UniProtKB/TrEMBL annotation:
<keyword id="KW-0679">Respiratory chain</keyword>
<keyword id="KW-0812">Transmembrane</keyword>
<dbReference type="InterPro" id="IPR017941">
    <property type="entry name" value="Rieske_2Fe-2S"/>
</dbReference>
<feature type="region of interest" description="Disordered">
    <location>
        <begin position="1"/>
        <end position="46"/>
    </location>
</feature>
<keyword id="KW-0408">Iron</keyword>
<dbReference type="GO" id="GO:0016705">
    <property type="term" value="F:oxidoreductase activity, acting on paired donors, with incorporation or reduction of molecular oxygen"/>
</dbReference>
<comment type="similarity">
    <text>Belongs to the Rieske iron-sulfur protein family.</text>
</comment>
<keyword id="KW-0560">Oxidoreductase</keyword>
<keyword id="KW-1003">Cell membrane</keyword>
<dbReference type="GO" id="GO:0046872">
    <property type="term" value="F:metal ion binding"/>
</dbReference>
<feature type="transmembrane region" description="Helical">
    <location>
        <begin position="156"/>
        <end position="176"/>
    </location>
</feature>
<dbReference type="Pfam" id="PF00355">
    <property type="entry name" value="Rieske"/>
</dbReference>
<feature type="transmembrane region" description="Helical">
    <location>
        <begin position="56"/>
        <end position="77"/>
    </location>
</feature>
<feature type="transmembrane region" description="Helical">
    <location>
        <begin position="92"/>
        <end position="112"/>
    </location>
</feature>
<keyword id="KW-0472">Membrane</keyword>
<dbReference type="Pfam" id="PF19297">
    <property type="entry name" value="QcrA_N"/>
</dbReference>
<keyword id="KW-0249">Electron transport</keyword>
Length: 343
């Protein structure tokens, strides 16, 4: 008898059953079943259940306070064109939104872990659509689950949950309010007009045409913008990029509206209004970093890639008697994103 046969015989005498093809699972492998259920404190102690109920209600009330805080932050903190007020409003909205969402989530999780049914069950797979009796049974199970959730027996949780869920979407109304009304002609009117000098942003100071070298890009604003009634709004509309390249590379319109290859275009992307801030000197492409809309400076800032649908508006410029760059007119079309009433 070989060593392998002796080993097989020894295993057989020890009671070991080897699995064979088509033989199924050996008898010695038994279904271990589910582990013993561990009851939670809330399942066995009514006082613990009431304490958990109050804790859930506390978090839901905290969520309500957070939702109210969002509304108060949106309505109560008025902008006055100062970055401090904008920063305060943004922080207050963010903090209130965090409290509202976090408390609602913690309350829901704590409710599920301490008060909702905790029994282990096994559901076997069946056909996707059940029979009429099975569907009726499913409805009954859902109703049973709703009853077991304790909403009927726990009015404190039910009422605070209703309050939290009712108030939670209300701040969205105030957010949507800020998206309207439609801009109408407000984007068609900027501080740029004939005779307005170009000044550097942010340091200020008029710009001499001779100081703009080929390949350079200068961030520009209209002179006197700091005296505007709403400085931030005017800066958002009037920001301009000033660039110079070889005049032979420009199309006719760009060349005629520029000075010796120096041209000025709106800095506001025509897709979503992000600042177009990247200039590729070698390709003469302007890139919006938000959604990668790309404009070709040699083709009157035509869109060559990305979601934007129209070219950047050009600002016509000239040189005064002292050599400073000055606008000869405003933009010939609305700056920024397209909208229905854009003329």
């Amino acid at each position: 008898m070989s060593d392998i046969e002796r080993a097989d015989e020894a295993h057989g005498q020890a009671g070991t059953t080897l699995a064979k093809p088509g033989g199924g699972v050996p008898d010695r492998f038994e279904n271990p079943g589910l582990p013993e259920h561990r009851h939670r404190m809330g399942d066995t102690d009514p006082a613990a259940a009431r304490r958990a109920e109050r804790q859930v209600a506390f978090f839901l009330l905290l969520s309500i306070i957070g939702s109210i805080g969002i509304i108060v932050s949106l309505v109560g903190i008025k902008y006055d064109d100062s970055f401090e007020r904008i920063s305060l409003s943004t922080k207050a909205i963010g903090l209130s939104m965090f409290v509202s969402l976090f408390a609602l989530g913690v309350g829901a999780v704590h409710w599920a872990k301490t008060l909702m049914p905790d029994d282990e069950r096994i559901d076997y797979r069946h056909r996707q659509r059940g029979t009429t009796a099975e569907r009726a049974e499913a409805v009954a199970i859902l109703k049973e689950g709703a009853a077991e959730a304790g909403l009927g027996r726990r009015p404190l949780i039910r009422n605070t949950l209703i309050g939290a869920l009712a108030l939670f979407p209300i701040p969205a109304v105030f957010f949507f309010r800020d998206t309207g009304p439609l801009p109408g002609n407000s984007l068609s009117t900027t501080m740029w007009e004939a005779g307005t000098y170009l000044v550097k942003d942010p340091e200020g100071g008029r710009i001499r045409a001779a100081d703009v070298s080929i390949g350079s890009v200068v961030h520009v604003l209209p002179e006197g913008i700091e005296e505007a009634e709403s400085v931030l709004n005017e800066k958002a509309k009037s920001a301009v990029l000033l660039m110079r390249l070889d005049e032979s590379e420009l199309m006719q319109k760009s060349a005629e509206w520029g000075v010796d290859g120096t041209v000025a275009y709106s800095k506001i992307c025509t897709h979503m209004g992000c600042p177009v801030a990247l200039y590729e000197q070698q390709t003469h492409h302007l890139l919006c970093p938000c959604h990668q809309s790309t404009f070709d400076l040699t083709q009157d800032c035509k869109v060559i890639f990305g979601p934007a649908k129209r070219a950047l508006p050009q600002l016509p410029i000239a040189v005064d008697d002292e050599g400073y760059l000055v606008a000869t007119d405003g933009f010939d079309e609305a700056v920024g994103p397209s909208f229905w009433e854009r003329g």
